Amino acid sequence: MRRMLLLAMLLALGGCAANTYDSRSAQLAYWSNHYEKQAAAGDLKWSEYYKGLYAHFFFIPELPGYDLYLRWSIAQLEAALAVEGGKVSAEAFTSFRNQMNLSMRSFAASGGRQRSAEQIDSFDLVLRLHENQAMGWYGKAINCVATDFNRVYTAKCE
Fold first, then answer.
1. Spatial separation of the C-alpha atoms in residues 25 and 78, rounded to whole Å
2. Distance (Å, rounded) from C-alpha 154 to C-alpha 26?
3. How far apart are the C-alpha atoms of 2 and 74, rounded to whole Å?
4. Which of 13, 53, 94, 104 has the fewest CB atoms lying closer than 10 Å?
5. Could you tell me which of 35, 40, 140 has the C-alpha nearest to residue 81?
6. Total structural domains within the chain
7. Cβ neighbours of residue 47 under 8 Å, at least 6 residues apart?
8. Measured in Å, how far apart are the chain's first and last C-alpha atoms?
9. pTM score, two decimals?
10. Which residue segment(s) compose the domain that 113 sits in?
11. Helix, strand, coil: what percent of the chain each, to 5?
12. 112 burial via Cβ count (<10 Å: 0-12, 13-18, 19+)
């Protein structure tokens, strides 16, 4: 009994210690890689993928450019909902998604956790153009609320 109690305490403490920036970033990378493949294969709606991506970004507030990552995922979500609603072609969405991903990869690779104000401002400018395009396609802005239950991140968006 005593060993079980000690084991339970160690597991609880280990779970708290594992909730670091690096562990959440690794979880995001694993989650994104797995579910992006499903979305690309048509097994998962792109809108569901971007809701999940928003939720994962939401719980890494120390990410340099944090608000940009959230805005990026919302713009992707709006574009995905527009294509799912028949407001834009699949080809236009794919082109949009590729442009957004290229911009994000470039931003993510620039400076790691020590991004300069110029790098953030540059990505912000590019992002604003894409946000306007996505909102124009979808017709309205989307707001998301992320939740965490035992490190399972979800988002409800409307």
1. 24
2. 17
3. 49
4. 13
5. 140
6. 1
7. 77, 80, 81, 84
8. 48
9. 0.85
10. 2-157
11. 70, 10, 25
12. exposed
Which of 54, 144, 134, 142 has the alpha carbon at shortest distance from 87? 134
Alpha-carbon span 21 to 25, nearest angstrom: 6
Query: Taking a C-beta distance cutoff of 8 angstroms, is the pair 124, 117 a contact?
Result: no
Phi first, then psi, for residue 87 (nearest 5°) are -85, -15
What 8-state DSSP symbol labels residue 49? H
User: Tens digit of pLDDT per residue, the chain (158 long)?
Assistant: 444 333 333 344 444 446 788 888 889 899 999 999 999 999 999 999 999 999 999 999 988 889 999 999 999 999 999 999 999 999 999 999 999 999 999 888 876 667 778 888 889 999 999 999 999 999 999 999 999 998 899 999 99
34: amino acid identity, one letter: H
Dig out the tokens for 24 from the structure. Answer: 């959440």
pLDDT for the residue 151:
83
Euclidean distance between CA atoms 23 and 28, whole angstroms: 9
147 forms bridges with which residues in the sheet? 154
Amino acid in the structure at residue 25 = S
Please name the residues in contact with 21: beta carbons below 8 A apart, sequence gap of 6 or more: 60, 62, 63
Short-list 3, 54, 7, 9, CA closest to 31: 54
